[in-house]
Amino acid sequence: MAKNRRARNGTNQPNHDKVPEQIARLEGHPALPETAAAAVPSKEELDSMPDGTKDQFAERVAALDAALTDLDAKREDLDRRLAEAKQQETALTAATADHEQRQTALAEREGSLNDRERAIELRELDARNGFLAQQREALKTLHDEIRRLETERDQVIARTEQDEREARQRIDAMRTAFRAEQQADKDAVAQNRQALEDDRQQLELERQRLEQTRRNQDSIEQEIRQRVEGEHHREIMLLKRRIHESVKLAGRDEALIQRQQKELEGFAQLSHLLRQHDLANAEDLIEQLDALRSENRRLREDQRHRSDDDLEAENDSLRERCDDYEQRLEDQVRQINELKNEVGSRRVGILERQALEQEKRVLEQHKRALDSAVTDLEQRLDDLTTRQQGRSAFEALTKMDKDLVGAASVEEVPTLDAFARELRHRIAGALDAPLFYPEQVIRLFLGGLAMSQLHILQGISGTGKTSLALAFAKAVGGHCTEVPVQAGWRDRDDLLGHFNAFERRFYERECLQAIYRAGTEPFKDRINIVLLDEMNLSHPEQYFAELLSALEMPAARRRVVLTESELPDPPRLMRGDGCEGRKLPLPDNLWFIGTANEDETTKGFADKTFDRAHVMELREKDSPFQVEQQSGPLPCSFSSLRRQFDQAQRKHRQAVEAGLAALQTSAFTNRLKDDFDLGWGNRLERQALSFIPVVIAAGGSLGEGMDHLLATRLFRAGKITERFDVGLDTLRELETALVEAWPRVDSKNDPETCLDRLAREIKRKEQQG
């Protein structure tokens, strides 16, 4: 135990790779009880243990292995000593037999001796007796040694049995303690899982509150802005009223100032006149005025007697004095206006300063409110980020690693022809409403599974495109994830999800979860489907471009890049070779099936999408037939289905190659090249070698598979049909060349689909004139 404690406390951690080998030695050890051996966990149970429990179990297994090794060494030593004792006992038995023989010989010699040799015989007898005593003494010693060895053997056996009992007791105690600790660990894991779930829910609530806060932030800022603008408007109106009142007061003050100014001017002139005339006060002025009036009367009397020249000179003098007074008055008025302007400027400056100070106080209050809101948001975001750091960026995918464990029970797929017949009936009764598809549709669908992982089901609404994918998944016991495509999808984030660098979390969409689920233990040997409903509502070449490129890669290199750099603690499937903790592999048991309606709301497919996909056009359903009752959905094994595909492709490869060679060397191929600039590419040949053999093995013919492949690859809109630069004669010549070349491919079946499309195109051209 001390050694185990040192191993746990030191740097030598348990080696998990040696645990299965140690368990195998324990399971086969003869000293281990059957109950203890039965309690040894399997490799799957060991892999599913938490790391801490796995370390403790590895330490205890190592200690038990060391104890059993020591016990084996003691047992080997005991067996060796018992073997040596048996050898000694065998040698003693042989010596005893030899001694008895020699004693018999001596007795015979004693009878044949004569009296003459009595003395010698006595001496020899004494010698013999002495030797016999020695032999007897040696024999007794050997018997004592044997008894001692037997006693020691019994003691060793007893000690060994005691050690075995003690080891078994220790093993049982350790196993009981381990089970108790494992149960405690399970309880702790359950509590931790519940706590994590509570944290997740709390974090989700925090995220929702944060998003609500973010959404409300604009409204809060708008409300604050409106409040501030309202306060500013009220302040401005108040200031305007104050300015208006101040202007009124200034007007009244100005009138008063003018009146006072006039009075002051009058007083000033009066004072000036008094000083000019050396008058002390107004009384003297009055007296002088009286004197002047008297003088004026006198002058008037004298004026009657004065000449006009004197009057004219005096009048000029008075005009000069009047002009001088007017000039002085204008100067005074100009000074008064300048003073009024200065007073008004100072009043306006004071009002503007008061308004700015008021606005500054309001803005400071606004700033304090915003700073408080920003601080609160930063604190909440820091708390959210801190709580997020301990969690995986791929929450849903990591949860699958914990929940989806253990392989599922699956059954082998029978031969493809039997499987196609059985599948037709299973599809018919898979959903609530019966679905009747022709046998040819089932065969072509199976051939498409072997040819491509991308399927396009075309046709008008209501022809059973979506139902075919859903019913097939249910019929084979697989898993189907339905993803409704939206018209606004522009990139792969709409399909797979996006990474939030701020929260360091990847928001996984349904499609990404379906891709990951297909690689987990319960689903990796089952058929998985991602149904892209209304696939052409948006351009697949935009949102599906990365997956489209990945499907063209070899199976070992099919990866989808999710993040630019590796994230801590990625999901299990993203830790494999070439994934770098940021890429997700595309499993072979996953198919993307897209439905496409033909109306004015949809987009057209590009050639690169058509050329990489298996295209089927569903126009009408089959007549109802008697559905055979099945025992339940067949959980088909993907690996067995893949083997059936491979076997069919090997078996019918030569026939398909011969059919391709017959077409390639015919006039039909020359017409394609000369009139339509179309040829046989490597991709088309690979698809033919994958698709047509499966159609044949499922009960079809070479002509049926070749007809469908040519119709969907060559006889589609933009290739041969619906081209403005192709005339009627060219189409008729191509039709003739196809009819003439086809018997070399399949003499029993006509290319009905290709001929039908050519006939419709010829009819359309004829109607256009």
Q: What features would you describe in this structure?
A:
- The chain is built from 24 helices and 9 strands.
- By secondary structure, the chain is mostly helical.
- Helix 5 packs antiparallel against helix 6, helix 22 packs parallel to helix 24 and helix 23 runs antiparallel to helix 24.
- The radius of gyration is 57 Å and the shape is flat.
- The N terminus is likely disordered.
What's the SSE blueprint?
Layout: H1 2-9, H2 19-27, H3 34-38, H4 43-48, H5 51-112, H6 118-276, H7 282-303, H8 308-389, H9 395-403, H10 416-428, H11 439-451, E1 454-458, H12 465-475, E2 479-484, H13 493-496, E3 497-500, E4 505-508, H14 510-518, E5 528-533, H15 540-543, H16 545-552, E6 559-561, E7 583-585, E8 590-596, H17 607-612, E9 614-617, H18 638-651, H19 653-664, H20 667-676, H21 682-697, H22 702-713, H23 728-741, H24 752-768
Parallel strand pairs: 1-8, 1-9, 2-5, 5-8
Antiparallel strand pairs: 3-4, 6-7
Helix pairs in contact: 1-5, 2-5, 5-6, 6-8, 10-11, 10-12, 11-21, 18-21, 19-21, 20-23, 21-22, 22-24, 23-24
Distance between the termini: 98 Å
Structural class comes to mainly alpha
Uncertain parts? 1-13
Main beta sheet strand tally, sense and closure: 5 strands, parallel
Number of strands: 9
The average pLDDT is 77
Counting DSSP H or I runs of 4 or more residues, the number of helices is 24
Features:
769 residues, mainly alpha, 68% helix, 5% strand, flat
